[in-house]
Amino acid sequence: MGHPEACRNGAGGRQENLAAVNGGADPDEDVSAEALEAGRLLFAQPCVFVAGVAKRSALPEAELPEVAFAGRSNVGKSSLVNALTGRKTLARTSRTPGRTRQINIFRLAERLHLVDLPGYGYARAAKSEIAAWTGLVEAYLAGRPTLRRVQLLVDARHGLKDSDHRALTVLDKAAVSAQVVLTKADKVGEAELAANLERLARELARHVSCHPRIVVTSAQQGLGIAELRAGLAQLAAAA
After folding, report:
1. Residue-level pLDDT at 102
2. Contact between residue 24 and residue 213 where contact means Cβ atoms under 8 Å apart
3. Could you tell me which CATH number the domain at 23-237 has?
4. Dihedrals phi, psi of 68, to nearest 5 degrees
């Protein structure tokens, strides 16, 4: 995997550098133009809200392949989903962490379900309510046959927290493929980002569920969004 330490200053150089970081699973393999175009075309299609699920019995029938987005409550899941789909209000964003208290499912082009999971690590709610959300998410992860991957979002400034390690352990036990997506990359310096990537790669090597490639993104600046779309389009095409 590439690292950002050789990046030129300025938005253009940073974009070029992150494109290198966001290459294929092989460190020397870039995401192809064809894959990027497939991702663009998929995410240009209609994306609609399907259901907000607060209990397992309310989950819609598993028909389309699904990609779930998980992470700490303030990591920027809703902002990333909105950036991917090019819609500012598809997934609700809030300045108060922990406001998403159900599984929200969106249907993209009748080809893929995007699943926004409740954030973990922070919530102003009773312990019993938090336990209910946790049980719902764990039941979803372990029992959803069409779940192709969990995109685990991690703040680029902070790296993995204890709650992220716990989430990865759950995914390991459930034998669910996971890929780490760094968010808010625009808020961290390039040398620090390079160091964080190296440390993160070492930590992820302990988790059998993890995809080998880390995607670096900024929903605000659009960094890494095209590469992430391309990867999700490949999952939809493989179904």
Report:
1. 86
2. yes
3. 3.40.50.300
4. -105, 150
